[in-house]
C-alpha cells in the first residue's frame, strides 16, 4: 500500500478536522500567531510519521539556535525531507522550495503558514528576489531551510553538488549555519510500499559567521557538504561493511 495512504488511513479520525484547521490558517495566516500555526503543522506531521510506519531517529536538536536568525542546510533525498525537518525543528522555520513542490496541496498550505518561498530555478531574477527576501527575514530573527543541491539526489545517501548561490542568504545575513544530515529519508516517500522504515535526522553543530566570513559562497558550500557527508558516512559505515 502507498505510504501516504497508510498515513491517512491510520489517522482518519483526525484528518478532516486537522485539514480544515490547516486550510483556515493558510487562508488567513495574519490572524494567527506563527507559534500556533507551526505547532498544528508539527502535530499533523508527527501523527503522519507514526501512522506511516516511519521510525525517526533525531539527534542534535540542541544545535538549533535558541534565538536570532539562522539558516538550515540539508542534503536532499526526497519529498519526506522537508516534512521530517519541520516535524523535528522546534523553532518555527520557513523554507525555500522549488516551485513544483510549493504548489502541491498540503505542502502549499504549510508553505503559506510558515512564510516559505517558491523558487523558480530557471528565472534568475526571481531567484535573486527570493534570496533577498529570505536574507531580510533571517536578519529579523527567523530561521529558514534550504536544500543546496536544488533537487533530490536520487542516489540514496549520496549527494550531488551543493550550489554556492544557496549560501548567499547566510553570508549576507551573517547568521549561524546549521548543517543537517539526512540518512535513508528517500525510503519513506520515494520508494514503493508502506513497510516499516528507519530514517535519521542529525542537526550538526552550528557554523558561526566568524568561521566562514572569509570564504566565498562556493567554499561555504564545500564546507557544509563535507560536514554533512562525514556524518552520513559515520551513520552508514556499518551498513557498507556489512
Describe the protein.
This protein has 242 residues and is of the alpha/beta class. The model has no long low-confidence stretch (mean pLDDT 94). The chain has a single domain, classed as Glycerol-3-phosphate (1)-acyltransferase.
Q: Give the name of the CATH architecture.
A: 3-Layer(aba) Sandwich
Low-confidence stretches: none
Give the strand order of the largest sheet, numbering strands 1, 2, ... along the chain: 1-7-6-2-5-3-4
Q: What value does the Rg take, in angstroms?
A: 17 Å
Question: Under CATH, the topology is which?
Answer: Glycerol-3-phosphate (1)-acyltransferase
Percent range of helical residues = 40-55%
Q: What series of H and E elements makes up the topology?
A: HHHEEHEHHEHEHEHEHH
Query: How many H/I helices?
Result: 11
N-to-C span: 29 Å
Main pleated sheet: 7 strands, mixed
Broad CATH class = Alpha Beta
Instruction: Give the averaged pLDDT, no decimals.
Output: 94
Strand content: 15-25%
Category by helix and strand content:
alpha/beta
Number of domains: 1
Number of strand elements: 7
CATH superfamily: Glycerol-3-phosphate (1)-acyltransferase
Shape: globular
